[in-house]
């Protein structure tokens, strides 16, 4: 009997959830398609109906996390009504941190991709997707910093391109260090203050926030 779209969607989600559990426990290299099918409680045939292999599964796990982040970046960095582009950047970084704190699936998926994935062999091609997503985020930051410069809010001597690169590096480092920190008493405790300090360092001395301070 043919499955309905809803049933197929549930099976696919079960496979992604099972894969994420396997990846988190055994690493990606140590997880087999049989392991993933067992964890999802489906047949291997059902797995192949949805995915061509482990690379496709990893891609789907990554997209489930990164696409909402990229969509949020488009909205927050470029289209939010807030007139201050630097406040938009701060809001985006704060929302990213909130996702890490509140969403276990996001934490697990990012941790797997950061620490439990060897991008070699059949998974090497997945680096291309990571590069595309990184460029899209950098472009969003660049456009926001360009708006800040037009409004006279960007620090003197700082170009939007360099500011965007710095913020991308800051965000990547923040996420990695936050995931490595096992308690709320270390780096996690100071993450929000670090975000505020990072964005403040990009603001002109006569910027809105500086004047208010």
What does this structure look like?
- The chain is mostly helical.
- The chain has 10 helices and no strands.
- It has 2 domains: 51 residues, Homeodomain-like (Arc Repressor Mutant, subunit A, Orthogonal Bundle); 145 residues, Tetracycline Repressor, domain 2 (Orthogonal Bundle).
- α4 runs antiparallel to α5.
- It is elongated, with a radius of gyration of 20 Å.
Q: Helical stretch count?
A: 10
CATH architecture of the largest domain: Orthogonal Bundle
Q: Which strand-content bin applies to the residues?
A: under 5%
Q: Cα distance, first to last residue?
A: 67 Å
- Which H/E pattern describes the elements? HHHHHHHHHH
State the shape.
elongated
| Whole-number count of domains | 2
Number of DSSP strands? 0
Low-pLDDT residue spans: none
Give a concise summary:
With 213 residues, the protein is mainly alpha-helical. Helices cover 72% and strands 0% of the residues. It is built from ten helices and no strands.
SSE map:
Blueprint: H1 5-26, H2 33-40, H3 44-50, H4 54-79, H5 85-102, H6 104-115, H7 126-150, H8 160-180, H9 191-200, H10 208-212
